[in-house]
Amino acid sequence: MFFIKGTNKSDNTRINDEIRAKEVRLIGENGEQLGIMSVLDAINLANSKNLDLVEMSYNGTTSVAKIMDYGKYRYEKLKKDKENKKKQKNTVIKEIRVKPHIDKHDMDTKINQIEKFLEKDYKIKISLRLSGREKLHSDSAVKVLDEFANFFEEKVIVEKKYGKEQVQKFVMLSPKK
Prior knowledge:
By secondary structure, the chain is α/β, with parallel strands linked by helices. 33% of the residues lie in helices and 29% in strands. It contains four helices and eight strands, in the order E-E-H-E-E-H-E-H-E-H-E-E. The chain has helices at residues 39-48, 70-87, 104-119, 138-151, and strands spanning 23-27, 33-38, 52-58, 62-68, 93-98, 123-129, 156-161, 168-175. The longest helix has 18 residues, at 70-87. The radius of gyration is 29 Å and the shape is elongated.
């Protein structure tokens, strides 16, 4: 299996003949400024050194290009992106649904469930859906959500309180660090 030079790339970096600018501000392989020159001259200079001309930035008339080994550059960039992805922390949001007239025992069960999620550092969205005549008495729904928020006020940060929608109210809780 073989690859043609300059193909099979996932990013939008232009190299060699793909560069559209008439002139480029050229940077050498060691980082030295080589000045402004035509694209053809820059490509010929890169080819004479057995390297690629890679466009780093484009601003209309002139672009900044660098002479480098594009394969090595792409490999190092993918490696760096992979490392950054490992360091990234994913936030998981768990949703718990409740009704406006919830029993004490059901509330205790939901509280136990929330405590388990907080131990795993998950964000929790407590949502409360109103239907029918419950929409007229949304203040009772707000009281239920306030009870949950007040119960966990030492352990969590209340990020959002109540939705603007009339049908569904919610509270977002995130664990304190």
